[in-house]
Amino acid sequence: MKIMDAFKKLKLSRSVNVTASIVILQGGIYIAKSGGNKALKEQVFMPVSQPQAWRDSLVSACQKMGLSDCCVNIVIGSHLYQSFQIENPNILKEELPGALPFLVKDLISDRVSDIVADGVDITNGKMQVYISQVSVIETILELLKPLSIQISNVTPDELVWKYAKPEQNSFMLLSHSASAEFKLLAFNEGNLHLNRSLRGITAPLTGELSNSFQLDSLALELQRSLDYLSAQLHDVNINHLYFRCDDEDDAELSAELQKRLGVQVASLLVDEPRVFRSGEVLSWLGLFNKPDINLYNDRLKPKVDHFTLQNVIISWGVGLAVVGMITGYYQWQLNQLESHFTVLSSQEQSYQQELGNLNSQIESHKPSAAKLAAIKRLQEDIESKKSSLKVIDNFDEGMQIGYSGVMSSLAQLGKGNISLTKIYISGEDVNFVGYARTPDVVPNWIQSFENELHLIGRTFNQLDIKTDEKGLVSFVLNTKATEEK
What we know:
Elements: H1 2-7, E1 20-25, E2 28-34, E3 40-47, H2 54-65, E4 70-76, E5 82-87, H3 96-103, E6 115-121, E7 126-133, H4 134-144, E8 149-156, H5 157-160, E9 170-176, E10 182-188, E11 191-198, H6 212-232, E12 240-245, H7 250-260, E13 264-267, H8 278-288, H9 309-364, H10 369-412, E14 418-426, E15 429-436, H11 441-447, E16 458-467, E17 473-481
Parallel strand pairs: 1-4, 4-8, 9-12, 12-13
Antiparallel strand pairs: 1-2, 2-3, 5-7, 6-7, 9-10, 10-11, 14-15, 15-17, 16-17
InterPro entries: ATPase_NBD, MSHA_biogenesis_MshI
Protein name: MSHA biogenesis protein MshI
């Protein structure tokens, strides 16, 4: 119960949908299982006696906890990965796993095809690259496969430690686990700025076997790291040092380091000394936080075999069902069309019968040849009478113009000077015979026709003027209407 209460003091950041986390360190296997609502349900520790014995210990730890049919995060120790700093290649995040192995091939002795890599950006345009063996990841997969355990991601342990103090913008962390070296990490705003392995320091640092010289050496290394960070990060002030070291007296170690350093020193967990192992804290942090990198990339993930017997049977069943549905639909449509065709056939028979009756009526109403001949004769007679009527209309109009119009105009002209004895009118032709007072009166009289509507436009083909021995002037005038152009 005390362990569970102490872990509650570790504040959590982002949560992911996993049910367990497995930490593989040099000294042991640590498994943490979630009970929901960010609560730790159970933890298991399985020690590792030999460096390569972690494979058997991994299976034994999972069996001891009864872990199966779940999704897990894997946290690996420094003995299972390498870390390098390179110039930031400015490559898209999704392209890094494929490009990084080629960028670091000159820094390692392994072949590019035998490694997996991922990286995170750090200060000064650098990138921290993490490399692991493909065989390591595949071994973990093969060991967990019989237990139906799926892997969500594989993360180096030093990147998981940044979640230990999310409320602190910047801090340093000293960690140590069995069979491993002391490691010093520095974080600022969630980014890793320093990772050092302190090779000259050996455990234990406290207790009956404590050595003041070792504490002095450790404090000197810590101070050097603080000075380095202060020089490199001008706007960052790291004044907190936390530690999580296995089998150490937290209170004693905190007091000794506090005397030697000018920063605040505290244990990551302070309730019970010599109780909490680094791996236990890592398993807790790896359970509820999403890492920045994942060494378990798509190239290593098992390919899903869709062409299985079960899938084939299901696909055949679905295909037959679809074919049956399509067949039933088209059969229903065929029945509908047959019913509609029957209705149309009945309508066609009714229309054919009605057409026959109408044709019979047409035959009975057709005129005979005699009637058609009589109609033709009547039409010809009508056209003949229309022509005669038109001639009569024209004659009447001409006569009206000849007599009334011409006579009215002649009555207005030549009074006292012209005396007509004969007037002949035939259509448009008019002939005059008469007497004049003097010969020159006749031309003036003819010229005055231009002012009369019924006489204007007439021309004269003949004009004869005679004077007898008694001085009597007679004339003959023949006229003809001018043709319109």
